[in-house]
Specification:
Layout lengths: L15 H15 L4 H8 L14 H19 L1 E2 L7 E2 L1 E7 L5 E7 H6 L1 H22 L6 H9 L3
Antiparallel strand pairs: 1-2, 3-4
């Protein structure tokens, strides 16, 4: 089996083959994976999983709070007559005055009104469809949806 990291995953120099094999070994040993199992296995520095984690507790706490803030922002939805439930904020990437890349959340309405942000939202929607296709391609119950995605050429 050939293991690879998904596009965009920060590999930090890790060997995808070693990581995939280690996760398979843990899965076989424990009858499934949990984050707790993976973190425990990653603690030894020699583990192929070790570099996937922040081991400095203070830095990890800050990163965890930032992740919680992102989860909070992404969890807010709005309901209207036009759209039953829609995410209020979407993540877009902008360059600041110095050319540094910044990730920001914008309201969906603001993003759709901005040409550059709208293109990002559409690209993310397409990526979500591709991810859906990859994740559920073997489910007969969603075969019609998969066919539509395939017809779109995604």
């Amino acid at each position: 089996m050939v293991y690879k990291f998904a596009d965009g995953y920060p590999t930090r120099g890790m060997d995808s083959q070693a990581v995939g094999a280690e996760l398979d070994t843990l899965d076989a040993r424990h009858g499934g994976l949990t984050p707790e199992i993976v973190v425990k296995a990653a603690k030894p520095k020699r583990s192929p999983l070790h570099d996937a984690f922040e081991w400095d507790d203070a830095a990890a706490a800050t990163k965890y709070r930032l992740r919680q803030a992102g989860n909070l922002i992404r969890s807010v939805v709005v309901e209207s007559e036009d759209h039953p439930i829609v995410r209020r904020f979407v993540n877009v990437i902008r360059a600041d005055d110095e050319g540094e890349t910044l990730r920001r959340y914008m309201t969906l309405d603001a993003a759709l009104a901005d040409k550059e942000a709208r293109l990002q939202v559409l690209a993310n929607a397409k990526a979500d469809l591709v991810a859906f296709r990859c994740k559920y391609a073997n489910l007969q119950e969603v075969a019609e949806v998969i066919e539509i995605i395939d017809r779109l050429g995604l």
